[in-house]
Specification:
The protein is of the alpha/beta class. The protein is 54% helix and 17% strand. Strand 7, helix 9 and strand 8 form a beta-alpha-beta unit. The chain binds erythose-4-phosphate. Erythose-4-phosphate binds next to helix 7.
Length: 218
């Protein structure tokens, strides 16, 4: 399973990349705003900065919600760097844009996926990735992981090449369950990724090993 980090924070991206486990980055307009990145030129420069840190897909989201605008913005984003993936919302205009970019060989990530039907449409339109939001479904008492499972079955039934990018991942068990189900990619915050490394028995065991070493080497 590929690991993407879901942030526009350059320090967090650098930290995850330095761990040697990072395969890519996802951003969205809220994450960019959280970092205080505003205005077209700053936003485009920020994507270039992210691409200079990580050698893997970097999702950059369009703001337009009508076809022509999405195409214009998406082409500008794709021209920034070979690793840019144009992130398109799951709306009818977005489906048309997915088909356009797919025909042109430009990679896409269809975002805001909350149902299997949406995932099916995006795959039919040639999306490279789809982003089902696990955490946001859990937030409304709906099983987000069950959706990942359902989409996995559908994509396998028809050998769709679209990759399932489990998004809105909130904690380490989301990541583990996504791996069990067979999501192709997960995107989550740095703290959820780092939490995978934590186990109290690891900490206690290490402390004991170091204490025993000290005793024997005094
Ligand atoms: C997807 O690419 C989104 O950026 C993201 O995963 C949303 O996560 P959230 O629900 O924690 O905001």
């Amino acid at each position: 399973m590929k690991f993407f980090i879901d942030t526009a924070n350059l320090n967090e991206i650098k930290e995850a990349n330095a761990m040697g486990i990072l395969d890519g980055v996802t951003t969205n307009p809220s994450l960019m705003a959280k970092e205080g990145i505003t205005g077209p030129s700053n936003i485009l420069q920020h994507y270039r900065d992210i691409c200079s840190i990580v050698d893997g897909p970097v999702s950059a989201e369009v703001i337009a919600t009508e076809y022509e605008g999405m195409i214009r913005e998406g082409e500008e984003l794709a021209a920034l760097h070979k690793n840019i993936v144009v992130k398109i919302p799951m709306i009818i205009e977005g489906i048309k844009a997915l088909r356009y970019f797919s025909n042109k060989g430009i990679k896409t990530n269809c975002t805001l996926i909350f149902s299997a039907g949406q995932a099916l449409l995006a795959a039919k339109a040639g999306a490279t990735f789809i982003s089902p939001f696990v955490g946001r479904l859990d937030d409304i008492s709906t099983d987000g992981l069950a959706l990942i499972e359902q989409i996995r079955t559908i994509y396998d039934n028809y050998a769709f090449e679209t990759e399932i990018l489990a998004a809105s991942v909130r904690h380490p068990m989301h990541i583990v369950h996504c791996a069990e189900i067979g999501a192709d990619v997960m995107t989550g915050p740095l703290n959820a990724i780092k939490a995978l490394a934590k186990h109290p028995l690891t900490d206690i065991g290490l402390q004991q090993f170091l204490a025993d070493f000290d005793k024997g080497n005094k």
